[in-house]
Amino acid sequence: MENEVKLLGGVCKLVFTYYPNRTVAIIATLISTGEEWCVPTVNYERFYQGYSYRKQLAFPNVVVKNYSENDGVYQQLVDAEVIIPGPYLAGSGGTVIAGTLTEKWQQLAQEQLKKAK
User: Fold this and answer.
1) Residue 82 — φ and ψ, nearest 5°?
2) Residue 104 CB partners (closer than 8 Å, separation 6+)
3) Which domain holds residue 29?
């Protein structure tokens, strides 16, 4: 299936939308039930220590929360070729990590993001 990824033990479809600051959010829903399984991304703008969060981490970049209920999700997104690895974000203790959507997933995300408000 084109939009299918195994995340945190569930076979999921990825839904792309925006956070209020227009950075990309990913919601993983279980293919079997349609229920929300996890939200691998996080809006880290409040804690960002760089120049411009909205410019530096805009599409096709995503910010992944890799702790608590999402522990391990970053590597799973890399292994599934959803994202290309990026840097850890300062102040996160290595648990919030940037990544860039691969070309395949950029195309799918763009289709969905056109419909997002």
Assistant:
1) -80, -40
2) 81
3) 5-115
